[in-house]
Amino acid sequence: MKAPKNVLMVGVGGQGILLVSEIFSKALAIEGFDVKVSEVHGMAQRGGSVHSMIRYGEKIYSPVIMEGEADEILAFEMLEALRWLPYLSEEGRLIVNDQRIDPLPVAIGKQDYPSGILEKLKGVSSRLISVDSLVLAKEAGNVRTANLVLLGILVRDLRIAREIFNEVIRRRVPAKTVEMNLKAFKLGLEYSS
Q: Which helix (H) or strand (E) holds 178?
């Protein structure tokens, strides 16, 4: 029996983390994996920290990922990547959207946004992928598809038929945005760092 895989998605409210978590976990379930998901999104609408823990494999008993156990961290914002870095396993892959979103203490001038985050992350993870997903999302037709770009990067090495993801995306996003979301996902699949 293969060991379960652990994926941690982190960012701030409004970035579409929960949508990506849902698409990812549904596609895995369709592929036949046992999937468990734990989400924290209490402050999501106010720009607060949001995370989703996804564990999948032959049989999963708990959705909780402990420090040092994440095979993948998909960070939708740089500071959140830094905050959740202790969860990355030694061989884990870190995918970081290099977007900066100031938390409230920074926005009101009470604290400074940390400098050199990407350099710190590079010093810790040899499997770091840094991407400006907003540029690719604009190419897809709307900056709000940046989350699907990141999903594409995350799943490009998985041995799951792309059509499964495409079908889940078609069913989950609003009908008028299907094509741009599929294009954003494809741009993520094709991204090379």
A: helix 178-190
Cα separation, 190 vs 180, whole angstroms: 15
Unique residue bearing structure tokens 């400074």:
112
**Of the CATH numbers 3.90.740.10, 3.40.920.10, 3.40.640.10, 3.10.450.50, which one belongs to the domain with range 5-102+114-190?**
3.40.920.10
CA distances from 18 to 55, 110, 186 (A): 15, 29, 19
**Closest by Cα among 20, 17, 9 to 151:** 20
Q: Convert the pLDDT of each residue in 121-160 to its tens digit.
A: 988 888 999 999 999 999 999 999 999 999 999 999 888 8
pTM: 0.92
Is 146:131 a contact under the CB 8 Å cutoff?
no
